[in-house]
Specification:
Strand order of the largest sheet: 1-2-3-4-5-6-7-8
Order of helices and strands: HEHEHHEHEHEHEHHEHEHHHHHHHH
Shape: globular
Radius of gyration: 23 Å
Strand content: 5-15%
Helix content: 25-40%
Number of helices: 18
Distance between the termini: 43 Å
């Protein structure tokens, strides 16, 4: 019997203004204040405001994924997610894509790939694979880690071989899985059914709007219809570009194919019982809210939540208030770094033979002071500190002297404005309503019957 796996989240998509603080826990204060003339005042300020808050949800549920951070290979690892959660309490976070085979073959070493801190909830595990047995086993093993959702990713494939050749070394060699699977919705439905049968959480699919010449709106709808009708999948993350499998790079595939937001909004119209998250080309909180005002169920932001200037600070720092309606926070960089120091040192002490380097733990902070006074000096000090610092505490003590107190203690500044014409004339661009092939055949039979 097929188990339903739809969302059980709060139904309303309006910004949520009633935030209840359930409990507080004060974190330790270990960052050096050597460059501060008001160290006691600064410490008192952090003790007062650096609180770990828990939002009371209806029936214990999380707020809906109005904003999520896209899974990105080599980027959205444990360290980035830990930092992101310190800045935003409500954004949904995704793991890097993990091949099902990796989970299966590393069964005795699963913590290295699947473990995460409880603070990272809500969090989604993204799996890739083409073998149903491995997908089933991987999902069963991952289920013990209590992710909030499991997502199947169509990973880009770029090769003269039609089946494999994903450019990421973490994905290469794991067989035929990728965007080409959009041409095989029956297999995708089987995979999603297998995932749902072996887990206790909702399942979702992340896909493009098409690939190569298979890029019509009806073909996209056929795929959505077949997967949703033949599996428990009720949530689709739609990257609003098609994929080109002609050998161009993954970066070019995120840039060259044109965005077709009208396809996404057509899906909202034609599949009212499903949930869709829009992805692609949306780069700031203003644009996220523009998509939500247009009717989007949720928005996924990718490299804008990691690489763009002054990111993640100026994007994630506004998500809770601007998207979810929480009170505006006076969180400062110093407070975030204090929390991240505690996290980083706990990781560096824990992992033994798989202990990450200090450089890996610091990597998510690379853009933290972009364009701020002292940023260049901080990066030079960081480069030198990588060679001898063994803890985050010593690293921050050595490098933060480059950053003025005015930068460290300032709350998040106003977010940069978004493009006003991102969804202009969208209603005029919507494709004709979708009719399933079964509906078309029935209509043809009726015409023949009355002819």
């Amino acid at each position: 019997m097929m188990r339903p796996a739809g969302y059980t989240l709060i139904a309303s998509f309006n910004p949520i203004h009633s935030i209840i603080l359930k409990h507080h826990r004060r974190l330790s204060l270990n960052i050096l204040y050597g460059n501060s003339a008001k160290s006691k005042k600064s410490a008192a300020h952090i003790q007062k405001h650096q609180l770990r808050t828990k939002v009371v949800m209806v029936a214990g549920q999380y707020l809906p994924p109005l904003f999520s951070v896209a899974p990105m290979m080599d980027w959205t690892n444990n360290h980035y997610r830990a930092l992101a959660r310190m800045i935003s309490k409500h954004a949904w976070l995704y793991t890097e894509m993990i091949a099902a085979e990796t989970i299966v073959y590393q069964e005795k070493n699963l913590d290295r790939f699947l473990e995460f801190s409880p603070e990272q909830h809500p969090i989604v595990l993204q799996i890739g694979g083409n073998n149903l047995d491995n997908i089933a086993k991987a999902t069963e093993l991952a289920n013990a880690y209590c992710y909030d959702e499991i997502n199947l990713k169509f990973v880009q494939i770029f090769s003269t071989n039609s089946c494999c050749g994903c450019p990421s070394p973490k994905v290469a060699g794991h067989g035929c899985f990728g965007v080409r699977l959009m041409l095989d919705p029956k297999f995708v439905a089987e995979a999603m059914s297998v995932i749902a049968a072996n887990s206790d959480v909702p399942v979702s699919v992340k896909c493009r709007i098409g690939l190569d010449d298979h890029d019509s709106y009806n073909e996209l709808c056929d795929f959505i219809y077949k997967v949703s009708s033949q599996s428990p999948t009720r949530h689709f993350i739609i990257h609003s570009r098609k994929a080109l499998l002609n050998g161009i790079s993954p970066a070019d595939n995120r840039r060259i194919p044109p965005l077709k937001y009208e396809y996404y909004y057509g899906l909202l119209r034609d599949f009212p019982d499903l949930r869709f998250t829009i992805n692609g080309g949306i780069n700031c909180v203003d644009e996220v809210n523009a998509a939500l005002r247009q009717g989007a169920h949720g928005v996924m932001v990718g490299r804008a939540a990691y690489h763009n200037v002054q990111i993640p600070w100026y994007t994630l720092g506004h998500v809770d208030s601007a998207v979810y309606g929480a009170p505006i926070s006076d969180l400062s960089r110093r407070q975030v770094l204090e929390q991240y120091q505690v996290y980083g040192d706990s990781v560096l002490e824990k992992y033994g033979p798989h202990r990450p380097s200090i450089r890996e733990v610091v990597k998510p902070l690379l853009h933290f002071f972009h364009s701020e006074p002292g940023n260049g000096l901080w990066k030079r000090k960081a480069d030198a500190a990588f060679f001898h610092c063994k803890t985050m505490k010593s690293f921050l003590e050595e490098t933060l002297v480059a950053i003025p107190d005015s930068v460290l203690d300032a709350p998040v500044a106003k977010a940069p404005p978004g493009r006003e014409d991102l969804f202009a004339n969208l209603n005029d661009l919507l494709p004709p309503p979708y009719e399933t092939r079964e509906q078309e055949e029935e209509e043809e039979e009726e015409v023949l019957l009355y002819a």
